[in-house]
Write a structure and sequence with these properties.
The protein is of the alpha/beta class. It has 2 domains: about 220 residues, Malonyl-Coenzyme A Acyl Carrier Protein, domain 2, CATH 3.40.366.10; about 80 residues, Malonyl-CoA ACP transacylase, ACP-binding (Alpha-Beta Plaits, 2-Layer Sandwich), CATH 3.30.70.250. The chain is about 50% helix and about 15% strand. The protein is built from 14 helices and 10 strands. A 6-stranded mixed β-sheet has the order 8-7-2-1-9-10, sandwiched between helices. The longest helix is centred in the first third of the chain and has 21 residues. It starts with a strand and ends in an 8-residue tail after the last helix.
């Protein structure tokens, strides 16, 4: 059985995520302790006893999601679950890099913390707009963005979620113009926050600065292959994985194209908080086995699916 492990991004976080696993597993507890020491953040309080508003802050959500998703993967790996390929949506790509065996937990926390600090500083300097656009094709939306995209008022698709669902980002007024025209084409639009990212040339300044931190991190060759969300290519070599972490900043996320590459896999595991990723995968591949892993019973069901009977010590 060929197995793919996938990790959610911003928006899947919720207060109480992974609490049952934390209470049950020493491995998860150690991960939380290590993360708290790395960033001087009380992740137990943040994840289990804060508020939705506090947890949703980008500087909290990105690192907390990475910690929780990586902890769950390491726990199921300890139980004997192995993945042939991994992928992550938006910031979930860092969890995928960890699951591939390329990026350590401390390094992932360090990089995400630096990235969020730089990104929020950029957002504070400009008037950016972000919107989800539904029910028009990639080609139609690309045409509208090209129609309005100018050097001083840029706009473009930042995330290709599905053939008929996208995220656009850029100059706030220009995003509004594209949304207006999209509605004229019988599409629907929804204004969203900035947390999913610009993923465009507007991030060139951050990419240049962020490389300094990336180059300090040792990206190991992957134990599993990673589907890089910026080009939907399968990679395993450490230098390529590092480059993927760089390209994710300035290139659109090709999530729809990435998910298309899962056709050859028999079991798709959505690892991490929430059910959004699981539901999306099940909708795209109704014929496949899709399993969400958030708690102890999920892990037992996954082990049954894979025929794993011996339970490793926690």
């Amino acid at each position: 059985m060929k197995v793919a492990a996938l990790f959610p991004g911003y928006g899947s976080q919720f207060v109480g995520m992974a609490k049952e696993l934390y209470d049950d597993s020493r491995l998860v507890q150690e991960h939380f302790e290590q993360a708290s020491n790395c960033l001087d953040i009380n992740f137990v309080k943040l994840c289990f006893a804060s508020s939705d508003i506090e947890l949703a802050r980008m500087n909290n959500a990105y690192t907390a999601l990475f910690l929780v998703s990586s902890s769950i993967f390491d726990l199921i790996k300890q139980e004997g679950v192995e993945a042939d390929v991994v992928a992550g949506y938006s910031c979930g790509q860092y969890s995928a890099l960890h699951a591939a065996g390329s990026l350590s937990l401390p390094d992932g926390l360090y990089l995400l913390n630096k990235y969020v600090t730089m990104y929020e500083a950029l957002i504070d300097k400009g008037e950016f707009g972000f919107a989800k656009v539904f029910n028009i094709s990639s080609e139609q939306l690309e045409y509208l963005c090209k129609k309005y995209n100018k050097e001083k008022t840029p706009v473009g698709i930042s995330i290709y979620d599905s053939p008929m669902e996208h995220v656009i980002a850029g100059d706030a007024k220009t995003v509004e113009q594209v949304c207006h025209d999209a509605v004229d084409l019988e599409g629907t639009t929804e204004i969203i926050g900035y947390e999913l990212g610009l993923h465009s040339s507007l991030m060139d300044e951050i990419e240049s600065s962020f490389k300094m931190y990336l180059e300090k991190v040792d990206f190991k060759d992957g134990e599993a292959s990673l589907l890089c969300s910026s080009d939907a290519k399968k990679i395993r070599v450490g230098k390529d994985l590092q480059q993927c972490a760089i390209s994710w900043i300035t290139k659109p996320i090709l999530w729809s194209q990435t998910v298309d590459k899962l056709k050859e896999y028999d079991l798709l595991i959505a690892i991490g908080p929430g059910m959004q990723l699981h539901d999306m995968l099940k909708q795209r591949y109704p014929e496949k086995q899709v399993v969400a892993v958030n708690n102890i019973s999920d892990i037992e069901k996954l082990k049954d699916t894979l025929g794993i009977t011996a339970k490793a010590e926690k």
